[in-house]
Amino acid sequence: MVELITKKISAASARAHTRKGKQNSGLKLPYGMYKTISIVVVMALLAFGYQAIQPPPPKICGSSDGPPVTAPRVKLSDGRHLAYKEHGVPKEEAKYKIVYIHGFDSFRLNPMPLSQELAEELGIYMVSFDRAGYGESDPNPKRTDKSTALDVEQLADHLDLGPKFYVIGFSMGGQATWGCLKYIPHRLAGAALIAPVVNYWWPGFPAKLAKEGYSLQRVQDQWALRVSHYAPFLTYWWNTQKWFPASSVVARVIEIFSKQDLELIPRLLSGDRTQIRQQGESVSLFSDMNVGFGGYTFDPMDLENPFSNNEGRVHLWHGDEDLLVQVCLQRYIAEKLPWVQYHELAGAGHLFPFADGMSDAIIKSLVLGEKQE
């Protein structure tokens, strides 16, 4: 009897042990399977992240799915097109010929105003154009601070502006004007930089001054500029995601403007502005940010006077209440480059060239050499 009980217990124990063994073996995966699953998960996350940071393809003007071409355009040596708009007197009758370079989030139809009275009085012709990716100009995937200067030169040649012409650049277009002074100085009769955007990482700035100017930016703009400088491949994602505040300039936050700017904004917003971003923000706004605050091919503070024989003039205009580009940085540039004629306007914000009579004063100062304060 004892022996029989012992055998039954042993059989039950064996069956339980067998079931337990089977259960354990059913939950255990081979080491190689864990490794494969981990790799697949990581690859899926990377693929998702890659897709999230990729901008949509641009809608090229004139393509089957893009906006129509409505402006006159010139074809550049690399096959791209630049759209332009002419102002003032016919160029065949002009004594002074000016190429105007627009700013951030703008286009050829929104230039600094040139009064017809001044144009006719002095014989002024001005052409504004859409910078690469804006309006109806083709994007430039290889865009740099040099390429815009070369675009200006080719535009002038296509329009037969002659061996020399003037350049006026506003805001981000002002930064591009430094590029003209660097790469095509032999083509310039003179240049005016109006509230030009600065790159806080230009090595010519003392570290303390650059930090001071940078800290005066809104916190969300400090982060947006960091991304454009250190991780330009994330600029599109950073400014379109919903977790953190994007660039206040891209978002058109009204608080970034001065008192004078708020009075002038309606003048800039008049007319149809839908063309500005129509080909895609990635090839216009965000390309601008990456070039303006990313890597640089030169430092403007290293430039030499392109008009050492006084055959031309370089003017820099800035408002002391500009909340977008800090005046302390422009003052330093003017000190480093004594051949630049610096004009600082009391009470003026970033948009001062659109104030009554201001643009005519800037143009007269450029072409006639008149001192305007």
TrEMBL record:
The protein's matches in Pfam families, at most eight in alphabetical order, are given as: Abhydrolase_6
Q: Which UniProt keywords apply?
A: Membrane, Transmembrane, Transmembrane helix
The AB hydrolase-1 domain extends over: 98-356
**InterPro entries xrefs:** AB_hydrolase_1, AB_hydrolase_fold
Q: Which residues cross the membrane?
A: 32-53
Question: Highest taxon of the source?
Answer: Eukaryota
Q: What is this protein called?
A: AB hydrolase-1 domain-containing protein
Origin species: Papaver nudicaule (Iceland poppy)
